[in-house]
Amino acid sequence: MCTLIYMTMRNAAATKQRILEHAQRQFAQYGYAAITVRGVADAAGVSPNLITRYFGGKDGLFLAATRVEIPVSTSFDGGRSALGARLAASIVQRWFGVSGEDPLLVLQRASGERPEAAEALAAFLDTNSLEPLHRYLRDTGLDDADAHSRAAAIDAFVLGVSTRRRVLRSELGDPADLQAWLGAIIQRLADG
């Protein structure tokens, strides 16, 4: 009996993960409006009822598929003089290393059509990008207002380039060249 319960839980977790992977891929590729619960269910090889059971429907599935993690704090190990290079390396690695179903890309694309996606993206960026960067800059000797202004400029710049590169699908060239360019601009913004 215990083995059967464990196998059922393990299969449920695997099924839930498979649904999420297909949802992430579809939301990233087509946006929120074009996706249906049935379409995701068919792609994942499950009944639409399982999506309702696990996620509560399309909105819950969208929220689960757009949970984002960015290890931005690893870019703060070291002095401010090399911050641009470290942030640029992390950014370019994500843009070129994470496939099209990146939850951050899903949020960016959906933010124009779903107010909750725009709010989720803004809240995520505030918590995981803007505020940690603000604290880092303040801790490197800038006064609070200057640190916040510079962090906001870096955040806006990176979001703009990300939107252009990933949402509008404009090719920005070689990853190494992009990394060098991003690093130089971010460093200028960090240095004031």
Automatic annotation (TrEMBL):
Q: Does the keyword DNA-binding apply?
A: yes
Write down the PANTHER family for this protein, in alphabetical order. HTH-TYPE TRANSCRIPTIONAL DUAL REGULATOR CECR, HTH-TYPE TRANSCRIPTIONAL REGULATOR RUTR
**Which InterPro entries does the UniProt record give?**
Homeodomain-like_sf, HTH-type_TetR-like_transc_reg, HTH_TetR, Tet_transcr_reg_TetR-rel_C_sf, TetR_C_16
Q: What SUPFAM superfamilies does the entry give? A: Homeodomain-like, Tetracyclin repressor-like, C-terminal domain
UniProt keyword Ribonucleoprotein, yes or no = no
The name on file for this protein is TetR-family transcriptional regulator
Which parts of the sequence belong to the HTH tetR-type domain? 13-73
A GO molecular function term, named singly, is:
DNA-binding transcription factor activity
Q: Which UniProt keywords apply?
A: DNA-binding
Q: Which residues bind DNA?
A: 36-55
Task: Please give the Pfam families that the UniProt record associates with this protein.
Answer: TetR_C_16, TetR_N
